[in-house]
Amino acid sequence: MERHGQVVRITPGMRERYLELHAAVWPEVEATLSTHHVTNYTIFIHGELLFAYYEYVGADHDADMARIAADPVTQEWWTHTDPCQTPVEAPPGTPPGTPWSEMTEAWHLA
Amino acid sequence: MERHGQVVRITPGMRERYLELHAAVWPEVEATLSTHHVTNYTIFIHGELLFAYYEYVGADHDADMARIAADPVTQEWWTHTDPCQTPVEAPPGTPPGTPWSEMTEAWHLA
Lengths: 110, 110
What we know:
- The structure is a homodimer.
- By secondary structure, chain A is α+β, with helices and mostly antiparallel strands.
- Chain A has helices at 15-22, 27-35, 61-69, 72-81; strands at 2-10, 38-46, 49-56, 85-86, 101-109.
- The two termini of chain A are 12 Å apart.
- Chains A and B meet through β1, α1, α2, β2 and β3 of A and β1, α1, α2, β2 and β3 of B.
């Protein structure tokens, strides 16, 4: 099992919209995550920061992430969520992609 | 089961010290957490941000946190970690206490 942590900023003015969307995430979006071995997924909010934690229980994280990104309903969902999210840092020349930054594990207690 | 998310900043210049400490967390500190119903605890790092995720499987979170805070070895451990951590925000008049800010859950997928 892999544990993943990610961080992103809320775009100024989009906090309420983000919470509204996540109070009713589309069932197809959740099903696509589950089908591709994503489990125990939680998003936390504090001020302008969002933090995501999930566990990946499949055999090829990158391949499953690519399949999730290829799902048309998920793509439509992201047209709603992407405007709410701004990368914590985006150096000049950063290619387009997910606004979330992957965090590195510093310690784990089972 | 309760899921908890917390965020804190690394004090400038203390990143390496923080990682060094967490590469070898004292066994007594880990045992005290486990005894008091804290499980699946992970700390992630990204730039100057630290994010903690843990699950609480007891019946009284506040009481167990108070017992952990009363443990002498944990208190000594915190004399090493506290200088590494700065609250993400500390408005004037904030009482002393843990530097970590509790985050609010925005969404969860089982």
